[in-house]
Design brief:
Rossmann fold; alpha/beta; single chain; 6-stranded parallel beta sheet; 2 domains; 15 strands; 7-stranded parallel beta sheet; about 350 residues
């Protein structure tokens, strides 16, 4: 098949450091290309993805995460570029929600999805519980012709009225994550420093347990004020340690040695790749009961699911009962790249038959 994979323009493919969605896109593209499919990747400037059967088309001059005011214009330019090339493909895969494809064109609101004549599948990577978006999706029949892919059952639930939908879990190259059974005495917070990721709650758990917290995280421009006002003064370099952002090799070292990963999310996390990454390294996860957590964390088997800071602090005291081997095995059968590529390939073959 000839497949177009459309990545968000905020972060390059593959990401240099932070970028869960972009890691997934990178693995998917290479997996499909290795199976003989010709894959064209529409992505941000600065992307370096390449290889046999892979064509890269950069649709912005640079990643837009640091240029948020420009992001929508580059998204529109990218989608128009894909539309112009659509008949070169058997299937188009957008890593955007349908709402992202809606624009004001000369005073009229249009959804660019309505102009695709080839089959389209869209993967939702963000939350789906926004009432305004739900109403728009429910009341816009033209969107119901497309195949909607979700990264967890919890994410699909609010928009389960879509007639053509499927859950495909995110995945990771398990063989690149070493298992470590000998842990060091620190808690790990990895991801982004932003309120909904629960950084303040993680700090509170560290203070309650008196176990050092290592923070390996990116600070986006929109979160700098929050960091300066709410977080910075709590970092003392001893109990609370901020290590900045890490590349792939660096985060592996933090994952495999941590006593456990803290995941005190305050939003409906669609997937939470860091949980799967920690488990693959044999590190238990202690997480709040939100979003996809119950689909990834098996309470008492590879970690603990809790409801507040006090329960999280209590659960930290029990992570020694969780074996590294069980953490690893809980991931191997569910979140392998092969399984993810199999399922996407099946979707693309199915929709391509409608062309």
């Amino acid at each position: 098949m000839k497949i177009a994979i459309v990545a968000q323009v905020m972060i390059p493919i593959p990401p240099k450091k932070y970028g869960g969605i972009e890691l997934i896109v990178d693995e998917l593209v290479h997996g499909l290309a290795e199976r003989g499919h010709e894959v064209t990747v529409f992505c941000s400037g600065g992307s370096t993805i390449s290889g046999h059967n892979i064509i890269r088309i950069e649709t912005s001059p640079y990643p837009t995460r640091e240029h948020p005011a420009e992001n929508r214009e580059w998204e529109r330019a990218q989608l128009l570029e894909v539309l112009n090339h659509q008949h070169n493909f058997d299937a188009v895969h957008l890593n955007y929600e349908p709402i992202i494809c809606r624009f004001d064109v000369n005073g009229k609101i249009v959804n660019l999805l309505d102009f695709f004549e080839v089959p389209v599948a869209l993967t939702f990577h963000n939350i789906t519980n926004i009432a305004e978006n739900i109403a728009y999706y429910k009341n816009t029949p033209s969107l119901h012709h497309h195949t909607m892919i979700f990264v967890s059952e919890n994410q699909r639930l609010p928009v389960s009225f879509f007639p053509n939908s499927k859950v495909i879990y995110n995945a990771l190259p398990i063989e690149k994550f070493p298992v470590e059974s000998k842990k060091e005495n620190y808690l790990l917070f990895l991801g982004r420093i932003t309120p909904v990721k629960g950084i303040l709650e993680a700090i509170a758990v560290s203070q309650k347990t008196n176990i050092p917290l290592v923070i390996v995280a990116k600070i986006d421009s929109v979160d700098k004020e929050f960091y300066e006002k709410e977080v910075k003064d709590k970092i003392d370099g001893k109990l609370i340690r901020y290590m900045g952002e890490a590349d792939f090799a660096g985060k592996i070292e933090y994952y495999k040695k941590a006593k456990c990963l803290l995941f005190p999310i305050l939003w409906e996390e669609p997937f939470g790749l860091v949980m799967a990454e920690a488990l693959t390294c044999g590190t238990p996860v202690v997480a709040f009961r939100r979003g996809s957590v119950p689909e990834i964390v098996q309470d008492g088997v590879n970690g603990f699911i809790v409801d507040d800071v006090d329960q999280m602090a209590e659960a930290v005291g029990k992570v020694g009962t969780i074996s590294a081997d069980k953490c690893r095995k809980s991931v191997e059968s569910r979140f392998s790249v092969k399984k993810m590529v199999d399922e996407y390939e099946s979707v693309f073959e199915k929709i391509a038959r409608r062309k």
